[in-house]
UniProtKB/TrEMBL annotation:
Signal sequence bounds: 1-28
TM helices/strands, residue ranges: 87-106, 118-140, 162-187
Subcellular location: Cell junction, Tight junction; Cell membrane
Organism: Irena cyanogastra
Family: Belongs to the claudin family.
Top-rank lineage group of the source organism: Eukaryota
The protein's name in its UniProt record: Claudin
Length: 188
């Protein structure tokens, strides 16, 4: 039972960590498009902004000036939280791999292996919380930006939606949290 739970938690943690990494690296956190014309599709990310021409499919991307340049708070906070979540999830995966019962590392001391799995669950929980805060922070900022335009009657048919990177970050963080619950609460 314990080995099956460990492998299940590892598989979920691995998939969720890949989701977090993809969310951090991809550039479609916020989508805005002109409802009336539907000629272009713009995705804003943490690292650059890309515009896709809907008629011919040509995509052009503009890199942000510099990592150290002045950026909106939502980008800086989300970058920081997502990078920290990626690092913690990676550390948790490495610790979990060494703590799995099916791995021959420290096979003579099962108590240490159990503590490694528990520690991996705690680290994964911290990473999932940071990733969820970063993803939700960005989503709330996108919503507030749209609400401000609507309340000031500046809304000219442009809509702001959460991009697939934002949803991927939320899904990865949630999956890491579920894996951490499996490792910390259900393993004993």
């Amino acid at each position: 039972m314990s080995a099956a739970l460990q492998v299940t938690a590892f598989a979920l943690a691995l998939l969720s960590t890949l989701f977090l990494l993809l969310a951090t690296c991809t550039d479609c956190w916020m989508v805005n498009a002109d409802d009336s014309l539907e000629i272009s599709h713009k995705c804003r990310g943490l690292w650059r902004e890309c515009v896709t021409n809907m008629q011919d499919g040509v995509r052009t991307c503009d890199q942000y000036d510099s990592i150290l340049a002045d950026h909106p708070v939502k980008i800086v906070v989300t970058r920081t939280l997502m990078i920290m979540a990626d690092l913690l999830a990676g550390l948790a995966l490495a610790t979990l791999v060494l703590g799995l019962d099916c791995i021959m590392f420290l096979k003579e001391d099962p108590c240490v292996k159990m503590k490694m799995c528990y520690g991996a669950g705690v680290i994964l929980c911290a990473g999932s919380i940071l990733g969820l805060i970063g993803s939700v922070w960005y989503a709330v900022e996108v919503y507030m930006e749209r609400a401000m335009l609507v309340s000031h009657n500046i809304f000219l048919g442009v809509h702001y939606d959460f991009g697939w990177s934002c949803w991927l970050g939320m899904a990865g963080s949630t999956g890491c949290f579920v894996a951490s619950v499996l490792l910390t609460c259900c393993l004993y």
